[in-house]
Design a protein that fits this description.
- The structure is a single chain.
- The termini are far apart.
- Helix content is 59%, strand content 3%.
- The radius of gyration is 44 Å and the shape is elongated.
- By secondary structure, it is mainly α.
- A two-stranded antiparallel ribbon has the order 1-2. The protein has a two-stranded antiparallel ribbon with strand order 3-4.
- The protein has 2 domains: 127 residues, Cytochrome c-like domain (Cytochrome Bc1 Complex, Chain D, domain 2, Orthogonal Bundle), CATH 1.10.760.10; 107 residues, Cytochrome c-like domain (Cytochrome Bc1 Complex, Chain D, domain 2), CATH 1.10.760.10.
- It has 10 helices and 4 strands, in the order ααββαααααββααα.
- Helix 1 packs across helix 4, helix 3 crosses helix 8 and helix 6 packs across helix 9.
Length: 316
């Protein structure tokens, strides 16, 4: 027997490992590509921002070069108007309102002339164009009279006061032009007027008495511009009707109603000043009861005279 036939373990042939070089290179390329993309994206945002700023600056420079002459001209005109207005104010208004429009308080603590800082150009335009200012002497209320200043002088003083602080500006014509007002606007304006204005100006807008010698002026014949300015500035005892209380459209509707009232005839005959029960009661007392009293006295005198005549005839 031969001993060379012993069983041996079969040899397993193991496969060769794949080389890692190509895989590493592929991953390296991908990582490099991502890094370069990130670098480009990081650099792109500032670059785009810089280019945008340069473009915006160029557009602004072009617009400024086109608009700046007119703006400079307007600024020069405003400065000249303010300077002229300050000179007029110092001569005509400072004795009551102070050299810097800060107002004057008397020793008794009363307000000799109120501060005009922040009242706006609309208040100045209203007071000067209606002749209420300057006042000849202090009183319970400034009354409407012939204006003292010209339109240019009023505009200059208004520009100066407006430069002292923010306030209502002089309204544009579109705000108070009611030449094309509709019936709906007129009706709406009447509702607002009866709700907010009749307590002082009465239902016909002819004005009325107020305490301490003051009064609400008549609105008949007042221009739409001055009505609008009065609503936004609140002269004297009148409250200020800001846009939060009455919108510009509501103010325009009130003006349309009042202007329509001026054209509407009085179908009730003699209106007695449209003062309501006061004038009607006075009319009744003076002409009604007064007439009856005179008639009674005349009848009594005639009766007494007739008795005397009869008595004389009997004695004769």
């Amino acid at each position: 027997m031969s001993s060379g036939s012993a069983c041996s373990r079969p040899s397993t042939s193991s496969s060769k490992p794949e080389p890692i070089g190509p895989v590493v290179r592929l991953l390296t390329r991908k990582i490099s590509a991502r890094l370069s993309a990130r670098r480009r994206s990081r650099l792109a945002a500032p670059a785009v921002l810089i280019l945008g700023l340069l473009a915006a600056g160029g557009v602004a420079l072009a617009m400024n070069s086109a608009v700046s002459p007119a703006t400079a001209h307007d600024s020069t005109q405003d400065a000249e108007a303010i300077k002229a207005g300050r000179a007029l104010f110092a001569v005509s208004c400072s004795s009551c309102h102070g050299m810097n429009a800060e107002g004057i308080i008397t020793k008794r603590g009363t307000n000799y002339g109120p501060s005009l800082i922040g009242v706006g150009a609309a208040a100045v335009d209203f007071q000067l164009e209606t002749g209420r200012m300057p006042m000849a002497q202090p009183g319970a209320q400034a009354v409407k009279k012939r204006p003292v200043f010209t339109e240019d002088e009023v505009a200059a003083i208004a520009a100066y006061v407006a430069s002292l602080g923010p306030g209502p500006a002089i309204p544009d014509k579109e705000a108070y032009d009611v030449s094309e007002a509709t019936t709906e606007e007129i009706v709406k304006g009447g509702e607002f007027f009866r709700t907010n204005c009749t307590a002082c100006h009465n239902f016909a807008g002819t004005g009325g008495a107020l305490p301490k010698g003051k009064f609400a002026p008549s609105l008949i014949g007042v221009t739409g511009k001055h009505m609008y300015e009065a609503m936004v500035t609140g002269p004297q005892q009148m409250p200020v009707f800001s846009d939060a209380v009455l919108s510009p459209e509501d103010k325009r509707a009130i003006i349309a109603y009042l202007k329509n009232q001026e054209k509407t005839p009085n179908y009730g005959g003699f209106d007695l000043g449209s003062f309501g029960p006061v004038s009607e009661g006075m009319f009744a007392w003076l002409l009604g009861i007064g007439g009856l009293t005179v008639a009674g006295i005349w009848i009594t005198s005639q009766t007494a005279r007739s008795k005397k005549t009869i008595k004389k005839g009997a004695d004769a």
